Amino acid sequence: MSTSDYDEYGFPLENFTELPVVKPRVRCCSHCRSPNHTRNQCIAYRYSESYDENTSQYREWNYPNPVAARHIRAKKEYNRCHPSITVCNHTTDDLYIYENKWGRLEKRFTIPARTTKTFTKELDEKDKYLSFQYYLIWDDLNPRLTMNDVFRDDVEEFICLEYGGGNYDIDAYGPPDIDSWKKAALKSRYLLEQLVRLGAKNNENYEPILDLVEDIQFPEVSESDKEDAGVPSVFTNYT
Asked: Is residue 114 part of a domain?
């Protein structure tokens, strides 16, 4: 054996073994198996002794058994601290989630066209008493903009996330296409007026329906709107 096989005190290295590391024993509650307390300090044990099995206190802490009840409470607490927004974007445009940070909008998430995404907010202990405001907006805004710079038609939804507030499931179909509905309404009114002009009211089957059409209050429209809808206006055949 060479001299390198001995330590500085002359003991052979081959007989040296490292002492095992003994971890401190963690004592668990004998009732709910939680490592944070003993049975005398256990709320579940106290409720099991003080309340009937049909009470809410007993079922929350001891049903179906104390260990399973502890995991159920932990899962519920996790969900309360992690509110989320699930958005299904049905349009061909991207949708953006902005957070209102003291009046200034900051982009947090992007939902591409024809996709479904989930945004989750993780709340710390200090966030349990706060609410966080989010806006679903159809435009990719300048990060320095505020809510005063955003048009109402561009906002799909306003959401407030807070501790225990639950989750949001949103189907986004985009801003309403008012122009298309206006054109369809003007064309429909024009065709009904032509039926009246051709004597459709003389028919006993058509008369009740056409009388009901007269009760519809159409808003005032301009001649330009009529021209865009393809119905006669002052601009018809104008050269």
From this structure: yes
Buried b (16+ CB within 10 A) or exposed e, 93-117: eebbbbbbeeeebeebbebeeeeee
- What is d(CA 211, CA 19) in angstroms, rounded to the nearest whole number? 100
Query: Does 23 map to a domain?
Result: no
> Residue 131 and residue 164: Cα distance in Å, rounded?
11
204 shares a domain with 150: no
Q: What is the pLDDT of residues 122-161, one digit of tens each?
A: 999 888 889 899 999 888 887 667 777 777 777 888 899 9
Co-location of 165 and 107 in the same domain: yes
Q: Give me the number of domains the chain comprises.
A: 3
State if pTM tops 0.85.
no
How far apart, in Å, are the Cα atoms of 33 and each of 69, 108, 148? 11, 40, 54
Q: pLDDT digit string (tens) for 207-239?
A: 888 888 888 888 888 888 888 888 888 777 654
Q: Which residues contact 9 (CB under 8 A, 6 or more apart)?
A: none
Rounded Cα gap, residues 79 and 82, in angstroms = 5
